[in-house]
C-alpha cells in the first residue's frame, strides 16, 4: 500500500507542479503588461516590475487551489488512462483508499499555501502597495486622488499614502463632525509619524492647516506639529493598504473587530476572512468532485477533456461563490454561510458521484 500511495502522490504532485508553473508564468506576463500600463513620470517601468515581483507570492497563493484542482484531475487521469487505476482496484484497493492517497499531498500543499497566505504574501503585498503609493504621489503629498478613506470616531480621514510598516503617513485630511453629522472642522497635514512613549502611542501631525466652521464665521489655524490621539495603530493601517482578499487571516479578523468597534459594517472583511480560512477545505471539496469524474465518465477520455472539466468545475464554483458574496453583503445574511454553501454543494456532489461508481 505504501508503494501505491507513493506512486499516486508522485503523479499528482508532478501534475500540480507543472500546471502551477505554467499558470504562474502566464499570470506573471499579464501582470507585468497590466502594471506597465499604469506607469507615470514618478511610477516608472522599473517600479512596476518591482511591484509585480513583490506581489507574485499573493498571486501564486490565489492561483494554487486551481492548479491543485487541475493537477489532481490530470495526475489521477493519467493513471486511469494507463489502466493503472484498474490494476490497483483489481488488487483489492477500494476507491476511497485511492481518493485518500490523492488527498494527502493536496492537504500538505494547501497547508503550505495557507502559511504563505498568512505570513509571506501579505507583508510583501503591503510593501509593494506602499511603495507604489509613495512613488505615484512623488513630491505631491496633497494628491487626494490616491489613498484611502477611513472613519475614526467622529472623524472621516483620508490618507494619500501609507509608508511600509504603517508608521508614517502622507497627506492626512481630517473632517470632524458633530452629533448631527455636520462638519465642524477640517484639517490637512503634510505627514504624520507614529511615536511611542512607553506603552502609549500617538500620531504627530506635521505642517497642519486647520479650518474651524463656527456659527458666525470661519477660523483658520496653522501648526508646525499637532498631537493626534486615535485608536489607529500602524498594524491596522498596514491592513488598510491592500484590498481584503489579499490580506492575512489575522489582519482581516483584527480589522473586522475594529470596524465593529467603530459602528461600521465588518461583513466585507468577515467574508474575506472566512474565504481565506476555509480555502483548504474548499480546495479539498473541489478535488473530491474532480476526481469523481476520473472513476466515472472520464476514465477513457483524453487529457484535453480532463483539463476542460477541471476548468469547468473551478469556473462553476467561482461563479457561484461570486454570486453569493454580494448577495450576502446586500441582504445581510452570514458571510460564513455564503462561503460554506458552495463548499458544501461541491463536496456533497463529489461524494454522491463517488458513491455511485463504487
Q: Which helices and strands occur, and which strands form pairs?
A:
Blueprint: H1 2-36, H2 45-81, H3 84-90, H4 95-137, E1 148-152, E2 155-162, E3 168-177, E4 183-197, E5 200-213, E6 218-228, H5 234-240, H6 249-261, H7 267-277, H8 279-294, H9 303-331, H10 335-356
Antiparallel strand pairs: 1-2, 2-3, 3-4, 4-5, 5-6
Describe the structure.
There is one protein chain. By secondary structure, the protein is α+β, with helices and mostly antiparallel strands. It folds into two domains: 2-136 and 267-356, no CATH class; 154-229, no CATH class. It contains ten helices and six strands, in the order H-H-H-H-E-E-E-E-E-E-H-H-H-H-H-H. It has helices spanning 2-36, 45-81, 84-90, 95-137, 234-240, 249-261, 267-277, 279-294, 303-331, 335-356; strands at residues 148-152, 155-162, 168-177, 183-197, 200-213, 218-228. A six-stranded antiparallel sheet has the order 1-2-3-4-5-6. Helix 2 packs antiparallel against helix 4 (95-137), helix 2 (45-81) crosses helix 9 and helix 8 (279-294) packs parallel to helix 10. It is elongated. The model has no long low-confidence stretch (mean pLDDT 86).
Which secondary-structure class do the elements indicate? alpha+beta
The count of DSSP E runs of length 2 or more, i.e. the number of strands, is 6
Quaternary structure: single chain
The N- to C-terminal Cα distance equals 19 Å
Count of runs of 4 or more consecutive helical residues: 10
Helical content band: 55-70%
* Biggest sheet statistics: 6 strands, antiparallel
Q: What's the gyration radius in Å?
A: 26 Å
> Taking strands numbered 1, 2, ... along the chain, how are they ordered across the largest sheet?
1-2-3-4-5-6
Mean pLDDT comes to 86
Q: Tell me the strand percentage band.
A: 15-25%
How many structural domains? 2
User: Could you say which overall geometry the principal axes of the C-alpha atoms support?
Assistant: elongated
What is the ordering of alpha helices and beta strands?
HHHHEEEEEEHHHHHH
Weakly predicted, low-confidence segments: none
Amino acid at each position: 500500500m505504501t508503494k501505491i500511495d507513493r506512486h499516486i502522490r508522485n503523479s499528482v504532485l508532478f501534475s500540480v507542479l507543472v500546471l502551477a508553473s505554467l499558470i504562474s508564468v502566464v499570470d506573471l506576463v499579464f501582470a507585468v503588461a497590466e502594471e506597465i500600463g499604469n506607469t507615470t513620470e514618478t511610477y516608472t517601468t522599473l517600479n512596476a516590475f518591482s511591484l509585480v515581483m513583490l506581489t507574485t507570492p499573493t498571486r501564486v497563493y490565489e492561483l494554487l487551489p486551481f492548479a491543485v484542482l487541475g493537477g489532481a484531475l490530470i495526475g489521477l487521469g493519467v493513471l486511469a488512462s494507463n489502466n493503472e487505476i484498474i490494476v490497483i482496484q483489481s488488487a483489492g484497493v477500494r476507491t476511497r483508499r485511492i481518493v485518500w492517497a490523492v488527498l494527502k499531498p493536496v492537504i500538505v500543499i494547501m497547508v503550505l499555501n495557507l502559511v504563505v497566505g498568512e505570513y509571506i504574501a501579505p507583508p510583501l503585498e503591503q510593501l509593494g502597495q506602499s511603495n507604489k503609493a509613495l512613488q505615484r504621489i512623488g513630491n505631491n503629498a496633497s494628491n487626494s486622488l490616491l489613498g484611502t478613506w477611513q472613519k475614526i470616531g467622529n472623524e472621516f480621514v483620508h490618507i494619500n499614502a501609507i509608508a511600509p510598516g504603517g508608521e508614517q503617513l502622507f497627506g492626512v485630511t481630517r473632517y470632524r463632525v458633530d452629533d448631527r453629522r455636520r462638519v465642524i472642522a477640517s484639517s490637512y497635514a503634510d505627514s504624520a509619524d507614529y511615536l511611542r512613549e512607553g506603552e502609549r502611542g500617538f500620531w504627530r501631525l506635521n505642517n497642519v492647516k486647520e479650518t474651524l466652521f463656527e456659527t458666525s464665521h470661519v477660523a483658520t489655524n496653522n501648526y508646525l506639529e499637532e498631537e493626534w490621539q486615535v485608536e489607529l495603530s500602524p498594524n491596522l493601517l498596514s491592513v488598510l493598504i491592500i484590498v481584503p482578499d489579499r490580506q492575512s487571516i489575522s489582519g482581516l479578523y483584527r480589522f473586522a473587530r475594529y470596524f465593529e468597534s467603530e459602528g461600521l459594517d465588518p461583513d466585507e472583511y468577515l467574508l474575506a476572512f472566512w474565504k481565506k480560512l476555509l480555502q483548504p477545505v474548499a480546495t479539498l471539496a473541489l478535488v473530491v468532485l474532480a476526481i469523481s469524474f476520473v472513476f466515472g465518465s472520464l476514465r477513457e477520455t483524453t487529457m484535453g477533456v480532463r483539463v476542460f472539466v477541471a476548468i469547468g468545475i473551478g469556473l462553476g464554483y467561482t461563479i457561484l461563490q461570486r454570486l453569493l458574496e454580494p448577495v450576502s453583503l446586500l441582504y445581510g445574511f452570514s458571510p460564513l454561510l455564503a462561503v460554506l454553501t458552495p463548499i458544501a454543494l461541491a463536496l456533497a456532489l463529489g461524494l454522491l458521484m463517488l458513491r455511485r461508481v463504487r
